[in-house]
Amino acid sequence: MKIIIAGAGAVGTHLAKLLSQEKQDIVLMDDDEDKLLTMDSNFDLMTVCRSATSINGLKDAGVAKADLFIAVTPDESRNMTACMLASSLGAKKTVARIDNYEYLEPHHQEFFKKLGVDSLIYPEMLAAKEIVSSIKMSWIRQWWEFCGGALVLIGVKMREGARILDIPLSELGKQEAPYHIVAIKRGNETIIPRGDDMIKLLDIVYFTTTPKNIPIIRKVAGKEEYSDVKNVMVMGGSRIAVRTTQFAPDYMRMKIIEKDPTRCTRLTELVNDKTMIINGDGRDVDLLVEEGLKNTEAFVALTDNSETNILACLAAKRNGVRKTVAEVENIDYIGMAESLDIGTVINKKLIAASHIYQMMLNADVTNVKCLTFASADVAEFTVKEGTAITRRKVKDLGLPKGMTIGGLLRNSEGIVVTGDTQIEPGDHVVVFCMSMMIKKIEKYFN
């Protein structure tokens, strides 16, 4: 597949690195030669130092033969223009990064397709949705819904009170528990577990289950004393913060701490009535305590500085906040953030990349997510008639090491998959695998 990425900024370079590992034909475009130099020498891709809105530049990049053209420069209008030009010059599919939420409204999508922009990616909105999912319950690190909410994936850190520590998963399976353990993050290692694996203290364990069985996971994880999240404090009045307040459920009360008075004035126009805007420096712990930090169940740090966000979450933890979320845009800091036990990490680049990544897949994939802490991906496949995945029971499929099936949706009902499950055409199947394996497991669904 020939893929052209316009924009060698944070999102573009991360996506180029990700896709180059898959041996795709990648072309990275940017008019800043300095940004391209390290990519050209360190990764298996071609660089073109031309503007994404230059017709001759697009031709030099080979846009006429492009299967996918991705415009992720910092300038929204430039991305839209680049996609329109690429489409008219022969690109089969185009994706533009945008900053305007209005463009995502359903009645606008057909209009943009006619102009040559097939898909729109708004990283800040995607990040906000992930934040809201992660703060729904104070005891859960990460929360994702699949199959329209019939199945959920939750990541939980194992503390001393967990009842499933040091027991082989094959033994836990004999108890016919209504959940499936699909991944374990242990230090810097990610494990797609087998029957002889055991859960250890401080592991982050990823479970799939149905919504009604979440209390059972809470019980076995020893998290029953954790309070529900009703009060949320947000540090930094960024666009992600605004979207977070808009996606948060009605029962949550939110406070945004923003040090720029002008931005505070603007925030009062953008957020709803349930959100309080406070002008102050979120690094001032005394101010946070004065504003009710000790009575807050969740603290979210969304400044443009990763180090500030990590330290702020540490300070919140020391003041008794159980649930903390940090925006960490420096990928190199993600491992450090986990080792400091700050809670959930949000990274726009990884979130946007996982959404774009699913557009490359040949199988019928409706959802792909990158597990930020774990080097793993999760994808939702629709099963077609006659595919390999339907020919045997799950335990007899010979699935590759590093892959597991977490659950499925059949006749609008979520089902936790076991070794004896027979997958049928029309099922929606949730698959977990180590990073960069999704292309390898497509053969089971094609």
UniProtKB/TrEMBL annotation:
Residues 1-121, 229-346 form the RCK N-terminal domain. Keywords: Ion transport, NAD, Potassium, Potassium transport, Transport. It comes from the Bacteria. Gene3D superfamilies: NAD(P)-binding Rossmann-like Domain, Regulator of K+ conductance, C-terminal domain. Residues 141-223, 366-446 form the RCK C-terminal domain. InterPro entries: K_uptake_TrkA (IPR006036), NAD(P)-bd_dom_sf (IPR036291), RCK_C (IPR006037), RCK_C_sf (IPR036721), RCK_N (IPR003148), Trk_Ktr_HKT_K-transport (IPR050721). This is Trk system potassium uptake protein TrkA.
